[in-house]
Design goal:
This protein has 301 residues and is an alpha+beta fold. The chain has helices at residues 2-5, 7-28, 34-37, 53-62, 87-97, 115-143, 153-182, 188-217, 227-259, 265-300, and strands at 31-32, 39-46, 69-73, 77-82, 105-113, 185-186.
Length: 301
């Protein structure tokens, strides 16, 4: 009952974190990667020693390709992000990176994405988030259709979506900071991370809600029961399971962050943040919101 009795504090913490995340998004914005705006991504690895980043900036600038982002990867490689390149420009880029063969290198990959492909990815990403949110509301409303008192089944779905927005907004806020200070860009892995957070965090919330549903069904007369006590009891029965399950996933994600390839570090970090705040919201936000809505309904009568 500690969480329910102090629900205003935990709801206030969540609101504060979301506001900070939205403020950082408004102030700093996100750097859009080539997956969405179009461009070329080249990854190279040097055979002997990687040249200093500062020594490559001038020859790359002399190419007049516009803005070029040079990002170290591993111990011998660079990832180069630029506008879309034709074959001749691609060859010139490799020449500049190799300092005219003074620093032998191997091209590991070269990917080119046109602006039209980027627009299509953007449209599909937004559509996927909207459809998933609607599907979650419908599923929870259907699953809880026999538990309409003291809170309507569709309200469970709405609260689940509110917690999902919380779970996505905070990791996005963290990514905004990484984007501003470390050059992280929004790419297809960013979208995958957001969709994965939506799926993982809602599962924790449904576990808690399902326990509340079972305890409501087991009451002889729901109308005579204290709803906040039922929610508190449900939390005490299930929060340990939720935390332990999330910790196992977080440990795997942290190992991916520290020992995985450079290209997936931000992806792993976003998922770690999503799992952490998803677990937090399931225990400290979703259930307190149910109690708050129930108390608000009483006041309206």
């Amino acid at each position: 009952m500690f969480i329910i009795n102090h629900k205003k504090i935990f709801i206030g913490i969540s609101i504060s974190l979301v506001v900070l995340s939205l403020a950082s998004l408004a102030v700093f914005g996100l750097k859009i990667g080539i997956d969405f705006k179009g461009g070329a991504l080249t990854e190279v690895s040097y055979k002997v020693e990687r040249p200093a980043q500062a020594t490559l900036e001038k020859p790359l600038a002399d190419l007049n390709f516009g803005a070029i982002m040079l990002q170290p990867t591993g111990t011998l490689g660079y990832i180069v992000k630029s506008r879309d390149l034709n074959d001749a420009e691609h060859t010139s880029l490799l020449g500049a990176l190799s300092e005219n063969n003074a620093a032998p290198l191997t091209e590991l990959s070269f990917n080119s994405v046109g602006p039209s492909v980027g627009k299509e990815l953007t449209r599909k990403a937004i559509l996927a988030v909207i459809l998933i949110s609607l599907a979650i509301i419908c599923f929870i409303a259907f699953a809880f259709r026999k538990v309409s008192k003291p809170i309507s089944s569709w309200r469970y779905g709405i609260i689940a979506i509110v917690t999902l927005l919380h779970d996505v907004a905070i990791p996005v806020g963290i990514f905004v900071v990484l984007s501003h200070f470390y050059g992280a860009e929004v790419d297809s892995l960013f979208v995958v991370a957001v969709l994965t957070i939506l799926g993982l965090s809602v599962s924790d919330t449904i576990v808690i809600f399902d326990r509340i549903r079972e305890n409501l069904r087991n009451q002889a007369s729901v109308a005579k029961q204290n709803f906040s006590e039922i929610v508190g009891k449900s939390l005490s029965q299930s929060f340990v399971r939720s935390i332990c399950t999330s910790l196992t996933v977080i440990l795997v994600l942290l190992s991916l962050y520290f020992f995985g390839p450079e290209s997936t570090k931000y992806f792993a970090l976003m998922l770690t943040a999503g799992m952490f705040f998803g677990t937090y919201s399931s225990i400290f936000l979703a259930s307190p919101l149910l109690v708050w809505v129930e108390e608000w309904q009483k006041k309206q009568k």
